Amino acid sequence: MDLIEELTWRGMIQDIMPGTREQLAKERTAGYIGFDPTADSLHIGSLVPILLLVHLQKAGHKPIALVGGATGMVGDPSGKSEERNLLSEETLNHNLACVQRQLEKYLDFSPSLPNAAEMANNYDWFRNMTFLQFIRDVGKHITVNYMSAKDSVRRRLDSENGMSFTEFTYQLVQGYDFYWLYTHKQCKLQMGGSDQWGNITTGTELIRRKSSGEAFAFTCPLITKADGGKFGKTEKGNVWLDPDKTSPYQFYQFWLNATDADAEKWIRIFTFLSRDSIEALLVQQRADPGARALQKSLAREVTEFVHGQAGYQSAIATTEKIFADQSAPAESLSVEDLESIEGIAKFDFPADKIGAGIDVVSFLAECGILPSKGEARKLVQNGGISINRRKIDSPQFSLTGDLLLHQKYILVQKGKKNYYLVRVG
RNA sequence: GGGCAAGUAGCCAAGUGGCCAACGGCAACAGACUGUAAAUCUGUCCUCUUCGGAGUUCGGUGGUUCGAAUCCAUCCUUGCCCA
Prior knowledge:
By secondary structure, the protein is an alpha/beta fold. The chain is built from 19 helices and 14 strands. The protein folds into three domains: about 5-220, HUPs (Rossmann fold), CATH 3.40.50.620; about 235-325, Tyrosyl-Transfer RNA Synthetase, CATH 1.10.240; about 330-425, RNA-binding S4 domain (Structural Genomics Hypothetical 15.5 Kd Protein In mrcA-pckA Intergenic Region, Chain A, Roll), CATH 3.10.290.
């Protein structure tokens, strides 16, 4: 099975330029994907492009990860309904460094490999380019008509928000990246999300016109959720790849909580499991959906890929402590259990305040779990708060010293899945 | 520079002098049911609250009025048309 066949089966190909498959079969090909430094960590949305590069490398081709030091200064209008805010140079550089460090984890850069991965930053070739150079050497080759025909541009032209010249130019800047990589790194392939198709074709067009060369591309579909919601969001916001921003436990939980429909699609995209193993899992899932074989494998594979064995182990350990026996009394958790539950928020609370007894509402607000008493009260009234695994049914409920686990902990739950550990001392 | 239109809560969007913290929808959070799914139903959803209320909102600023998201002036932003 060749790369394209493999990716097609996994549901990772949306558009593909004719001849791409033949090119990949013909010779070792360098292919690139651009990553925008919009934040100081990549999130799981970027996982798909990363995986594309990994698949590319596994198939013997050379992956190039491009970070957008220059394009990040412009702002990609694709998929955006409004003009983006520009990032300051300082943030940009910080983000750039972080993103680069993350990318390095997932690809093999060993110089001994014939298809060693490479990192590039388009600021390197834009830094010294003047505006006049750009409009003469790049702008001259592409008509405004061509650029305006792109979906991402047209949608914005039709909308009432309009679009700045800066963002309009974006596709040329990205297009030039491809041209530069084509001429300097013999890079003949660009990949990306399907929203990038317009930008990508500008690149191949530029290569065709400027050096009558031939370049190829394919895109993968944007990841969606069955219910139409945004992929990669939880209550706490984005799911990041950086373990300091999203702990391995939370990361694992994100995948574990996938709906059945999503898990079926995602397991093919986000894991390297073979077709046979996935089909076996699908059969299992249908036979006993409650066991969630799909979600478990999905969560395991992705967590291991991103956070390694150790990260997965700690995620599992926490999951078991929290969910293995929901009805088990909180008292059955040992000090070690409580202390080592990774990924749950920890708070401190002065012991003397509890000595005399304190009502739940004040407690929740004062220790910082909830922002205000009003909010705490509402949640309690809704039945959304449990303490030491027992549901609190009244805002008047009073916390006293004998509730402390091991004389110093209180375990708070908001809803079923959000745990907070309060250290009293 | 001239003409026209628009700017309301995270988003979409109603409201066009008092009954407006502002209809409705989406998103989000919680509850019931489940499988830590989905669907459905229910509650919450500007901030604070001793749950009685209190405070701050409808692009900004000033004004008219007993009273303004709503009227007037001015400024800002955006779009369309003309120059």
